[in-house]
Design goal:
Order of helices and strands of chain B: HEEEEEHEEEEEH
Distance between the termini of chain A: 31 Å
Number of helices of chain B: 3
Helix content of chain B: 10-25%
CATH topology of chain B: OB fold (Dihydrolipoamide Acetyltransferase, E2P)
CATH superfamily of chain B: LytTr DNA-binding domain
Number of strands of chain B: 10
Distance between the termini of chain B: 33 Å
Strand content of chain A: under 5%
Helix content of chain A: over 70%
Largest sheet of chain A: none
Number of domains of chain A: 1
Number of helices of chain A: 4
Strand content of chain B: 25-35%
Oligomer: heterodimer
Radius of gyration of chain B: 18 Å
Chain lengths: 138, 148
């Protein structure tokens, strides 16, 4: 149950990030429409990357170095999966430019998810502090 | 609530009698705290052995198959496994917050956010321990936050 909740949480963040990124890219490239299939492909990619995040993202780490290594591994795994999906869905072409675009896109969504998760954790920490204060005074 | 302290008759054992209309959550917590006060754990440090009171232990950590009890400034090795400690102190102020750490919640000064959805607890002795995402719901439950 814990893992399903986590997958749903990341799915929400990643889908939002991907939709924002798609809109930005469409504005830059001057596209004025989105394919119907893309509306199905985005949640599919988001679901897969959410599952990878829950499996690979380090929830704890003995040292800072170990933690950063796991983050890097997680990012690389996401890049590989997204490049494959990007080619299958026709989002990118299999060339240097296409791969670079996907690597940058993954980094942008990664940063977006990081920031949203931090804001959520901040609210959670405040809630815990209020409850701790109340609990201690009992 | 009225608190009465009486001196027992000579030869009588010390005893605590609780008279209450209802055994509510606060009362159960109080009983568990009294019980835990007796559940001491043996700590080993530089060839010396000490009986550690749960109240003085800030957290337990498992490192390389060894379990350590961290007090205000001293660290003691304990022979119990982390899951045994978790079971021993399950109704007390101790709570598992990651795969390798059980913390004394009453000694948490405050909680702060960290990058990557994690939380960090700063203890009263200024030490910091990481609260893993998976253990946040149990911690919330412990301190009376009901999950929506």
């Amino acid at each position: 149950m814990k893992y399903i909740t986590e997958i749903i949480r990341y799915f929400t963040y990643i889908t939002t990030g991907m939709v924002i990124l798609f809109i930005v890219l469409m504005l830059i490239q001057g596209d004025d429409g989105i394919r119907l299939s893309t509306l199905i492909e985005i949640p599919c990619a988001a679901l897969l990357t959410s599952a990878i995040t829950v499996l690979l993202y380090p929830s704890e780490g003995k040292t800072r170095k170990a933690y950063l290594c796991r983050v890097l591994l997680h990012y690389l795994a996401l890049c590989v999966v997204m490049i494959v999906m990007g080619i299958l869905f026709g989002w990118i072409e299999l060339n240097f430019h296409g791969i670079l675009l996907m690597v940058i896109s993954v980094a942008a969504i990664y940063a977006f998810t990081f920031v949203v998760a931090y804001i959520t954790s901040k609210n959670e920490a405040e809630e815990l502090n209020r409850a701790l204060k109340k609990w201690r005074s009992k | 609530m009225k608190i009465i302290i009486e001196t027992p008759k000579e030869g009588d054992e010390d005893e605590i009698i609780i008279r209450c209309k209802e055994l509510d959550e606060d009362m159960v917590r109080l009983i568990n705290l009294l019980k835990a006060g007796k559940a001491r754990i043996t700590g080993y440090h530089n060839g010396t052995i000490r009986q550690l009171s749960p109240k003085e232990i800030y957290y337990f950590e498992s490192v390389d198959n060894k379990v350590f009890a961290y007090c205000e400034s001293e660290i003691y090795e304990v022979k119990e496994k982390l899951y045994e400690i978790e079971a021993l102190y399950q109704h007390t102020d101790f709570q598992r917050i990651s795969k390798s750490v059980i913390v004394n919640v009453s000694l948490i000064e405050f909680v702060s956010p960290m990058l990557g959805s994690r939380l960090e607890a700063t203890l009263r002795n200024r030490e910091k321990v990481i609260i893993s995402r998976q253990y946040v719901p149990e911690l919330k439950k412990k301190i009376g936050i009901s999950e929506r």
